[in-house]
Amino acid sequence: MNGWxxxxxxxxxxxxxxxxxxxxxxxxxxxxxxxxxxxxYLNELVDPQCDPLSPDNVLVMATGPLTGTGAPTGARxxxxxxxxxxxxxxxxxxxxxxxxxxxxxxxxxxxxxGRSATPVYLYxxxxxxxxxxxxxxxxxxxxxxxxLLLAETDxxxxxxxxxxxGEKRVLFAAIMNDxxxxxxxxxxxxxxxxxxLKAVVVKGKGRIPLxxxxxxxxxxxxxxxxxxxxxxxxxxxxxxxxxxxxxxVTQNFGVLPTKNWQQGTFxxxxxxxxxxxxxxxxxxxxxxxxxxxxxxxxxRVDDPHFAGQCLKEAVTLYExxxxxxxxxxxxSFGAPYRYGEETWADDMEWGAAELYKTTGEKPYLEDAxxxxxxxxxxxxxxxxxxxxxxxxxxxxxxHYALYDAVDESFKDSLAAYYRAGIESxxxxxxxxxxxxxxxxxxxxxxxxxxxxxxxxxxxxxxxDERYRDFLLLQRDWLFGRNPWGTSMFTGIPEGGEYPVDVxxxxxxxxxxxxxxxxxxxxxxxxxxxxxxxxxxxxxxxxASVQNPFVVYHDxxxxxxxxxxxxxxxxxxxxxxxxxxxx
Length: 582
Fold this sequence. Notes:
The protein is α+β, with helices and mostly antiparallel strands.
């Protein structure tokens, strides 16, 4: 059984069980490689008449005897199933690092039967296998899924997973491994999705057993030497142009698949063939485990003209701000309030920091440091009240943008600026039972997302986790841990308690909910009772839990607490992105 690990993992998704069984040596001999194993077990287990997307279909992931040995082009694994696209047995294969790690777990193949009642993923760690819940992964793309699984399992593991296409059973959905490698033929991702199987995570150890390691190494070297000598004379097309190198050949022969094989040629092929893509975008090659070809491509798409125009406009805008320091009045002369924006220096700090990082020109760094000192701790955070937009925008991004460009001493200063504001909010939080650190002036939810952003940025800058529990309390307030027991986001959670009767023209005119929108949030009762023209349209559904100190209504008539806020929603995106990776 050299070259094989001698085990097959059977995963019964109906029952949620995993079982290790030995690989029959005769089957391994008669049915060659991962493709052979897959065909054997599909013939044994699957009714040819079954619906490919039903629980009766079987999904086989299998390696071959050369997988993981270092044999050139041997780093592959096969996905075998009945195809939902063709209705026939299909084999889709992929490379990268996942197949070798899979083989090192001690298993040659994994056989999935049935369908899980809820989303799951398989974690296979050094011969120990378990199914884990994947509700938190459902709906996420393959890159997000991979990052989350590496964070919750092992950073050195390898992941094969599906994205929304597989979940929705799109008939050509792929299974992606190592983020960028695809088992892409015949809809194997749709079959995986039909089984509620989100991912397979593998972490192995050890080497693949060989009958004669020294002879194998010698023979392997001979093959590689012959290959290297050959490509010195005639470079391999796959290395030079990747798999897109075949576009020109297939176009010339009239067999370039176009419009689902309705045509054999493609108008505009000149823009997508390998030589053109290499010329315009290639940065370096990448290779699967032990493969000398390196047909993978690491690319970058640049548009120098557009980038140059953006930089030119940024410089112009920055220079205008530098000449006319301070804030502008964006509202009409007759408006009953003025925009104060005493935090304007933060905007200039941020702009100067980004221009320095883009151009490397020292005067921008000097400007950024000067503006950082001006911005300092200027913020709404220490105050219980403020004039209209006196400290807008409510979050300081400049200190974070500048942090990595300065010396350790000034890094300490930037972190201290953030810390001072957070400590002010922490002190305020001690005065209410929910431990909420903001003042309930107009747009209190904006302040809350800004406070959370500042804590997230501070932790990312310094690694200091002292405010993490405080951060969670602010987050939970927005999702229902508040006197009214309601989320502050329209449509979140689905089917839960959230703002419906919001003060927005979309809802007023069409009755449509704007999902994901954060509303302004509660205000002090003194503010609410002082507002002109505010009349509730319906009886207060929260009357039994209202209090005279802080007020909130899910009513279109309450423009002070139930109006959607674009800037607060934008701030919430940073918060949600942060927790999505945790």
